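Input sequence (224 aa), recorded before submission:
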Amino acid sequence: MDGNGRWAQLRGLPRYEGHKRGVEKVKEIIGSALRLKIKIITFYAFSIENWQRPVTEVDKLMELLQSNLKKETNNFISQGIRFKMIGNRSLIPNHILSIIEETEKATSHCKELIAQFAISYSGRDEIIRAVRKALQHNIECEKIDENVINSFLDTAGIDEPDLIIRTSGEQRLSNFLIWQSAYSELYFTPILWPDFTEDEFKEAILVFQKRQRRFGKVSEFTRT
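Predicted structure, token format:
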């Protein structure tokens, strides 16, 4: 969800206003995902690298996260949305983490949509933590394979993403789901996240639906 800060700066507003607008856009796209019967959606909300931003901006982001989780938990439950966090929990302040985990617990029974939020997240960090967990479970090195790694990732039990959308014109994954995205389709748009609409979301899905996914196999339409 890239471009919140730039969106605000283009309008002469504090960066925080861009983040506030970005949160409203998250709610809009969650609603769209429900209407489209999508079962899993993941938002890259805050990377491990984002901890290096100015303290005032980080504090505002954490306040925004905290206040919105408190406000939205009942809405999640009423709409059947299961909230799930992926990321390094050890770096998150305890008072924020407790609200995250309370929301996870309160929505754990919901079945309509899994809304994953990558918070304090890094794909490389996730893989490192998964390998360490495997070793802590006394799994022998030669027995560590893809299935073992998958079972210790933050996304264990969750399907890998079919489509990854990045807004704002940047064309890279930036450490997002780098294990899980091995065969994901990528969609890049120049639109800043606060301007990303349900129509844009549907357009990305239509583009995805037209792509041919072979997963390393030979296409049935290939002629020799």
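Checked by second reader. The CA atoms of residues 29 and 201 lie 7 Å apart.
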